[in-house]
Amino acid sequence: MSTLVTIYEVVSHAQRFWRLRINGSQEIAFPTRDIASAAARVRARRQNQDTGGHTEVWVERRDGRMDREAVFLGGTAGAMCAEWRRQ
Fold it and tell me: Pfam families, from UniProt (predicted)?
């Protein structure tokens, strides 16, 4: 049995925008890193609640490295869902 894994990445784009990439393809532009990061967490949580599986949110640091900011594990309606988030 395979587990659905979805990766949400927040990466810098141009000089003043941040992109939200979903599994490396779909991209949405946001004006700030904080807004993009919050949008990624909301979308990841919603997807995890709808489909179950494993969903991660990664955010690019100012130096270009990536930090895992949130992980959602668990299932669909009625199942338990666990969340880990970087403080």
Answer: DUF2188
Which is more confident, 39 or 53? Answer: 39
Residue 64 carries which DSSP code? Answer: S
Whether the Cβ atoms of residue 67 and residue 61 lie closer than 8 Å to each other: yes
Number of domains in the chain: 1
Please give the model's pTM, rounded to 2 decimal places. Answer: 0.77
DSSP category for residue 1: -
pLDDT category of residue 81 using cuts at 50, 70 and 90: low
Domain that holds residue 48: 5-85
Tell how far CA 54 is from the center of its chain.
Answer: 11
Q: How many residues make up the chain in this entry? A: 87
Structure tokens at 36: 């993009």
In angstroms, rounded to a whole number, what is the distance separating the alpha carbons of residues 51 and 60? 26
